[in-house]
Specification:
This protein is α+β, with helices and mostly antiparallel strands and about 180 residues long. It contains three helices and seven strands, in the order H-E-E-E-E-H-E-H-E-E.
Length: about 180
């Protein structure tokens, strides 16, 4: 009986280990596909920030405009943990590039897919999936960026909304405002 239990537990362990290995190999392949997307679509002058498996490609930098009265360029807020951020986004399932739109709060995009309202999120307190949180870290007020990451940093091995399990994700981000909370 003990031998039978040991055999069954060993089989389950091997089965789970194979599944975990398969998922890890899937994430590695996704990360290679993401890297190919970045290197083929963006030139070497495009600012790319990599943070814990998340990749942020800056499309449009914040506009630092000289104050004509004081002659000073005002400081642009940079997102740090504990700050509040108001942004619009369009979330896509990634497959070599943005594919299926699964959610947006961007008013211009939502006209095509239904109305939602941009909202303010408190960054770093479990409001965001980890890949988006890592991608937003250090973003500046007024920036437009693409944040892309493997399923490991998204919904992982769980399906969510219309996103299949372990899917890599791409978010197009438009930062509207960053409020320093410190």
């Amino acid at each position: 009986m003990k031998l039978m239990k040991f055999a069954i537990l060993s089989f389950i362990f091997i089965l789970v280990s194979c599944t975990d290995k398969e998922i890890e190999l899937k994430y590695i392949a996704q990360e290679e596909q993401i890297e190919n997307y970045i290197t083929s679509k963006f030139d070497t002058l495009t600012p790319i920030t990599r943070n814990n498996g998340s990749n942020r490609i800056t499309i449009a930098q914040s506009k630092e405009v000289l104050d004509t009265v004081t002659g000073v360029i005002p400081t642009v807020n940079v997102l740090e943990r504990g700050d509040s951020i108001k942004f619009s986004y369009a979330g896509y399932i990634f497959n070599g590039g943005p594919q299926t739109l699964f959610y947006t709060n961007n008013p211009e995009i939502s006209k095509l897919y239904g109305d939602t309202i941009p909202k303010s999120l408190h960054y770093g307190f479990d409001d965001l999936i980890i890949g988006l949180e890592y991608g937003l870290e250090g973003i500046k007020d007024g920036e437009e960026a693409i944040i892309v990451f493997s399923g490991k940093y998204g919904y992982q091995n769980e399906p969510m909304y219309s996103v299949p399990a372990a899917s890599p994700l791409l978010f197009h981000i438009w930062v509207r405002d960053i409020k320093k909370n410190k």
